[in-house]
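>> received
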Amino acid sequence: MRRFQRPDPGDRRPRPRGPGRRACRDGCAVLCALGVVVTPVLASQPPASYAAPGRLARATSEVYRLTREEALVKERYARALPAARDRKREVRRLADRLSGLQFVSGVLREDAGAAARAQYRTGGFTARESLQVLDDPLELLSLQEDDTGRRERLARRLSETDDRSRALAAEARATASSWHALDQDVARMRTTLDTVGGRLTAARGRLDALAAAAVAGGRCEAADRDGLDADDAARPDGDPDRDGWTRPVLGYRLSAGYGGSGANWAGTHTGQDFAVPTGTPVRSVGPGTVVASGCGGAFGISMVIRHPGGWYSHYAHLATPFVAPGHRVRPGEWIGLSGTTGNSTGPHLHFEIRTTPEFGSAVDPVEWLRRRGVGL
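>> returned
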């Protein structure tokens, strides 16, 4: 199996500018898309702290674990926040209803009081009725009964309104209590999310530094992915029942496209860049065999996979490789974690489709995937 893009130790010697200062290598990342700034370790040999056995594996597991933890907290936060807002709106709606009922209750009390005062003044008759000349005493009694019935209806309506007001007030208190509890949960989740985010940023920085040290030492051995606690939505070993093609990363932002030009490339851009944070699982786009791996140069940690039909896919700027040349991969199988090794301006995956395993034979990867039913 071929290995390519071996680092040239002569070009990687640091030029110290003072005690405790680290030299930057050409083309090092200046800004991470998510705000992570990393200073690569560029000594001819990695420091002992970075060369310790299992350090890279632990950093890989830590980044993946914290990435999952952050995703779970974000998911809970995304559900809790609108629920708290809905509960707050319900509290306001109940308060408006209660205010309306209290207004009606006040009107009814005033009306009942006016009726009682009128009865006292007229002996049970309204002013209009008392002016009428009625000879029949039974007719006078019927008028008095009508007025009494009106007061009784007012009393019933007032009692019903007061009952509804008490029930609504109890409901409003319970809703307000649950809203405050939800609001406190949201605040705690926000704090947890900030804490996990800070730890994840630091862990990604450590992984980037360890990856840079591995490249500097020319030792980019494949890590063990079996220790990663993957969720059911993504199998690290790919989908055994899938024969087709898939995306190299699941969540991403498409950045530099195929054929572009600029200060970052000597010629035109030979692939498609997927802006993803360090530690994002990178997947084989289809079935095939790893035929080459890289550990330095412009592409940093990278690999090439041969697919049926004579096509090759290339994955560059990785932080951690999971497979070595000769390994057969399934569609969607995790082949490494993204990073920012090599000539990179921030964490991303540089992805190419080639007609040969060598640089210079690339075709438009977006169009190539589209023809195979994969939209980006």
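>> Residues 1-53, 125-131 have pLDDT under 50 and may be disordered.
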